[in-house]
TrEMBL record:
InterPro entries linked: AAA+_ATPase (IPR003593), ABC_transporter-like_ATP-bd (IPR003439), ABC_transporter-like_CS (IPR017871), Metal_Ion_Import_ABC (IPR050153), P-loop_NTPase (IPR027417)
Signal peptide positions (record): none
Biological processes annotated in GO: response to zinc ion; zinc ion transport
Keyword terms: ATP-binding, Cell membrane, Ion transport, Membrane, Nucleotide-binding, Translocase, Transport, Zinc, Zinc transport
SMART domains the UniProt entry points to: AAA
Protein's name in the database: Metal ABC transporter ATP-binding protein
Organism annotation: Pontivivens ytuae
Length: 257
């Protein structure tokens, strides 16, 4: 049973067609990444799946009662407002110390409870946003360019954290990213979007697809091989997680998106 089934999705904004004929399914526990150029409709697709915008054509079906955790692309915190991480995670719903602590541990942000939100590094801030999404105990975690503002090692570490979250909680993950070669190593499936689905499949299949190469060139292939090599040989960042977890969920490249 799919968590989400998108069929023939079209989205218009005024006279402009943003998405056309998008089909996709999300299975429990899989990590799916949407890549595509600026303005290709990635955020619009996430918002349609969240139910924040209505399709102009087609359907978005969510499993009944599906719990979704959402990490937005940007979140502005008033720099003059004193707000600890603990308090931030207790808004707008009071969660209690144990739940907050557990979410921070799962997000790789243990020990930050008493820090001011405005004092956090970019990577810490992203992990706190992730912790906030985890408080929902999501079956599906949706992240819109979650590593905006992080450097490449910071981004790679964040994507490994996402894999750790999936291993711990077993949730499916749908995310948008521009960092193609980094994110591909952490994805079971990749969807290349440009107003419509250009190509989809395993990271290797998408990286070598002519449609993908037409949009992004061929430069990521070497980096992809490098990252996957690294990925196969473990990480040195202290997280103990099973790389094979969830890959059973990964559909082959010849299945529907
Ligand atoms: N509410 C809206 N009204 C009018 N146009 C919109 C609206 N929302 C999005 N668009 C347009 O739809 C297109 C796709 O936007 P979207 O934000 O989904 O793209 P994206 O792939 O996420 O882009 P980026 O990589 O730059 O974040 C853009 O041309 C955008 O200007």
């Amino acid at each position: 049973m799919s968590l989400v089934t998108v069929t023939g999705l079209g989205v218009d904004a005024g006279a402009q067609r943003i998405l056309t004929g998008v089909d996709l399914t999300l299975a429990p526990g899989e990590i799916v990444t949407v890549v595509g150029p600026n303005g290709s409709g990635k955020t619009t697709l996430l918002r349609a799946i969240l139910g924040a915008i209505q399709p102009s054509t087609g359907r978005v079906e969510r499993q009944a009662g599906l719990r979704i955790g959402y990490v937005p692309q940007v979140l502005h915190i008033d720099q003059t407002l004193p707000l600890t991480v603990r308090r931030f995670l207790d808004l707008p719903v009071r969660r209690g110390a144990a739940a907050v602590r557990e979410a921070l541990v799962d997000a790789g942000a243990d020990g930050l409870e008493k820090r001011q939100m405005t004092d956090l590094s970019g990577g810490q801030f992203r992990r706190v946003l992730l912790a906030r999404a985890l408080l929902e105990k999501p079956e599906l975690l949706i992240l819109d360019e979650p590593t905006t503002g992080l450097d490449q090692p910071g981004s790679a570490a964040f994507y490994r954290q996402i894999e750790a979250v999936r291993a711990t909680l077993g949730c499916a993950v749908l995310m948008v990213s521009h960092e193609l070669h980094v994110v591909m190593s952490a994805s079971d499936r990749v969807i290349c979007l440009n107003g419509h689905v250009c190509c989809h499949g395993t990271p290797e299949v998408v990286a070598s697809a002519p449609e993908y190469r037409a949009l992004f060139g061929t430069g990521t292939q070497g980096a992809l091989a490098l990252y996957r090599h690294d990925h196969d040989h473990g990480h040195d960042h202290g997280h103990d997680h099973d790389h094979s977890h969830g890959h059973d969920h990964a559909p082959r490249e010849d299945t529907a998106v």
